[in-house]
Amino acid sequence: MLSPTNVNRLSKEEVIEYLRSTKDICQQNDPMALHIKKQVTDLDTAIEQLDDILIYDRKSDFTQELEALDLKRDNAVNGMRYGFLMNSYHQDAKKKAAGQLLLAHIDTYGSGIARLNYEAQSTVMVNMTEDYETESELKKALKTVEMTDWATILKETNTAFRTKYQERITVESAAAKQSFTAIKPQAIAVYEKLYKRINAFTELDEKNVFDTLNNELKTLAKRYQQIINIRTANNSEEDETQGATVTLN
User: What stretch of H or E contains 240?
Assistant: First the structure.
């Protein structure tokens, strides 16, 4: 089985599908005889809750609008960084120096701003755009590399995103609707109880009663662990590439 920590690293859809597959495997192996019936039933209930919320999120106009605005601000911040990087190699000394200054500044916020969660990304972009407006050297550098309009776009799209995000919070709060993010830890906690119970019984299993169940769960876990490993490797490669690029400046 995947550890609860690794389950938490899966995407929304992956979490639901992994938990559902785990539940299905347990149900096919006579959970009553294995004394895990309650834990499996609780997991089934948690999966239904996650399913309901995900369906709500997909149908929500707020979700679609937020995704569109988030993509725009991702494009803006990524475009700015590549623009700064390009200018840091400029043959014009002033543009080169300005590009290097702006690149060093944006990288103080981390190399993967666009990969941050909604809340963290909003905060970073508020602080960043405030820097562009209040720090004279940055303002001058943006004009030098002719990217002041990019900073304006970033601020406007982030402001629009934050406004729409707050509207969704207000609506969901009034409807007492829980988000997937809020429910997910509870579902993983339910899974953890099943995870610990199976491990505990396996330790005491002298008749190999749990062998079939564990082999099937292990095969399932390997597939999802591969997803996690590939995703982690890809993120690491991207960070290393960006880090190497900064070093060259």
Answer: helix 211-248
